[in-house]
Amino acid sequence: MTNSDPHGRQPVLTYGTPLADADGVVILLHGRGSPAANIIRLAVPLAPDPDSEQRIAWLAPQSDGNTWYPYRFIVPVEQNEPWLSSALAKIDGIVDSAFESGIHPGQIALVGFSQGACLALEYTARGSRLPGVVAAFAGGLIGEPGAPRPPIANLTGTSIFLGVGDADAHIPAAQAEESAQLLAAAGATVDFRVYPGVDHAILDDEIDAARALVTSLPIIAPAI
Fold first, then answer.
1. Is residue 6 part of a domain?
2. Domain contains 2
């Protein structure tokens, strides 16, 4: 029997300000075959300047077997179940914990690479709990190209960066571009960049773009 929630009991790595004391949350989503311990290292180059007033909690959930879903992001969605739904629910749980700590939706960022980038974009599109900003390094919306998908949520107020190399063997640039267009049509502010000659990688330019989004997270005074 297949476990209906394969990622549910996996740990969430933490870095930076404890969630209870934070005024911003960045959820870091790793790629296939690379553990949460790797992606959480991005907290260092993405962090605001040391003299910034931002206090960010960096949270990196671990997937079961270092894989969020077993097949490519462009296969029919049902082939990647129940792993995909479990991954989305894992993010829901982290966001709910942030809300319980007094974090506002606009103070939450999703940052992911490869499978994690696809997951960040798909989570945002489904709109159960909208983040303020998203940075996707080499990703696209999940599902078979051209197949009907549920309507994308109203993403007005959400800022998204999506970068991809035109030589990426895993993420077709055309699919990434179509995803960017769909997200923009739903109201998101989308910064889409294609990098000539680049395969499956995270570039310094992408880090700079993501860092700008992270540092744009608002500091909202708690209610008195």
1. no
2. no
Cβ neighbors of 217 (< 8 A, separation 6 or more) are: 24, 54, 56, 106, 107, 108, 109, 132, 133
Give CA–CA dist 155/57, Å, rounded: 24
pTM: 0.96
- Residue 201 counted as domain residue: yes
Cβ neighbours for 103, distance < 8 A, ≥ 6 positions apart: 19, 22, 23, 24, 25
* pLDDT, tens only, 104-163: 999 999 999 999 999 999 999 999 999 999 999 999 999 999 888 889 999 999 999 999
Q: What is the tens place of the pLDDT at every residue in 103-121?
A: 999 999 999 999 999 999 9
CA dist 41 → 38, 191, 199 (Å): 6, 24, 21
Q: Which of 145, 144, 143, 104 is nearest to 125 (CA)?
A: 143
Per the structure, how many domains does the chain have? 1
Q: Is 176 helix (H, G, I), strand (E, B) or coil?
A: helix
Q: Which domain holds residue 179?
A: 12-215
Instruction: List phi, psi (to 5°) of 223.
Output: -65, 140
